[in-house]
Structure formats: structure tokens, C-alpha cells
Specification:
About 40% of the residues lie in helices and about 10% in strands. By secondary structure, the chain is of the alpha+beta class. It folds into 2 domains: about 10-95 and about 195-205, Ribosomal Protein S4 Delta 41, Chain A, domain 1 (Orthogonal Bundle); about 100-190, RNA-binding S4 domain (Structural Genomics Hypothetical 15.5 Kd Protein In mrcA-pckA Intergenic Region, Chain A), CATH 3.10.290.10. It has a 5-stranded antiparallel sheet with strand order 2-1-3-5-4, covered by helices on one side. The longest helix has 15 residues, at about 55-70.
Length: about 210
């Protein structure tokens, strides 16, 4: 599956907010937002233009795409799947994205960023219900157990991530056993449990035109 491979700090600058795409660097003084909180490019220091209508809707969509590391075609498929289900489309869209295996690994603290979590999944370091899964977009269900393979539990990257993020906590819809390096999906996430400062209804409006 295709993915964005360019500089990620410029994405945060473009949106004017921290998207936490670079792990621990985002919490340090080296964060680009702390030093250069203006859009990238030669005209970036100019005053941010006022946006309305389509522009605001587009920016909300771009934020969500960049946070979860998905490109346009895949994001549209997520929206179409959410639109087919009962309930509030915007809430369902975020729920589908939260249920991605790479995001769950990140939320459990097994990686410092979603991109690192994606790499862990792709390299076969994680098990879901005792079966190896190497597809980052795999959608977990309530009751699933996500664990680090026994042969990977001493990996330096995983140990470093656990030490680095242990103070950030685990979302209410997940539980984590640090001794076994395993987490359980206690329930599907609700909108209130998804800590993401976006207005998902604007995304629905954008795709509904």
C-alpha cells in the first residue's frame, strides 16, 4: 500500500497544529511547530489567508488523513464504508480509522508514532489473537488481543517506545499488560474516547457534495 514518504514536520506546519507524526520529537523543543509555526514554502511567513466553506472542509480532511497516515483513495474507501453503516457517519469514520492495527499498536504504547507502529506491523512483530498479522490496515474487533511476538519482545525499538510513552496512558477502550506486552480491545471506541481535535462533520459535508 502506498504511503507518504516526504518530510512530516511540514505537514504539521501546513495544518498549523501538532499532528504528532514524529513521535518523541513532537514533545521536545525541536518540534517544528515550536520554532516555525507558519506554512512551509517561500510564502509561508505571509499571513495565513482566511478560509471558508470548501477550504475549511479540505483542511479537516487533510488533518485526519495525515494523522492516520492514509492517502486519498484509501481514505475515501473508509468514508464510503462509514457511510454505508448505521449511525453518525463522521463518528463511524473515525472509529474505523482508530481500529487500524497500526493505530492500536501506537495507542498501546508499542511505538512512539503511527509510522513506527506501521513498520512494526509490516515486519511481522505483532500478533492478533495469537496469529501473525502484517497488514497495518487490519481492523481489530472488540475482544481481540494484540501482542508482541515472543521473539520480538526484547527488540530495542519496542523497549524504547514503551519507556518513552509509558506516562501518556492507554485509551479507555483498550487495556495493556506491560509484563506480557499485550493489549486487549475492550470495546469499540466512541467519539468521546478518540482524542482528535477535528470536526469530522465537515469531512462528511465535503464528500457529500
Amino acid at each position: 500500500m502506498a504511503r507518504y514518504v516526504g518530510a512530516v514536520c511540514r505537514l504539521c506546519r501546513r495544518e498549523g497544529m501538532k499532528l504528532f507524526l514524529k513521535g518523541e520529537r513532537c514533545y521536545a523543543d525541536k518540534c517544528a511547530i515550536e520554532k516555525r509555526n507558519f506554512p512551509p514554502g517561500q510564502h509561508g511567513k505571509a499571513r495565513r489567508p482566511k478560509m471558508a466553506g470548501y477550504g475549511i472542509q479540505l483542511r479537516e480532511k487533510q488533518k485526519v488523513k495525515r494523522v492516520y497516515g492514509v492517502l486519498e483513495d484509501q481514505f475515501r474507501r473508509y468514508f464510503e464504508a462509514a457511510d454505508r453503516q448505521r449511525g453518525i457517519t463522521g463518528d463511524t469514520l473515525l472509529q474505523l480509522l482508530e481500529r487500524r492495527l497500526d493505530n492500536v499498536a501506537y495507542r498501546l504504547g508499542l511505538a512512539t508514532s503511527r509510522s513506527q507502529a506501521r513498520q512494526l506491523v509490516r515486519h511481522g512483530h505483532l500478533l492478533v489473537n495469537d496469529r501473525k498479522v502484517n497488514v497495518p490496515s487490519y481492523s481489530v474487533r472488540a475482544g481481540d488481543v494484540v501482542a508482541v511476538r515472543a521473539s520480538s519482545q526484547k527488540a530495542a525499538a519496542i523497549q524504547h517506545a514503551i519507556e518513552e510513552v509509558k506516562g501518556r496512558g492507554t485509551p479507555e477502550w483498550l487495556s495493556f499488560d506491560p509484563d506480557k506486552l499485550a493489549g486487549r480491545v475492550m470495546s469499540l471506541p466512541t467519539r468521546e474516547q478518540i482524542n482528535l481535535p477535528v470536526q469530522e462533520q465537515l469531512i462528511v459535508e465535503l464528500y457529500s457534495k
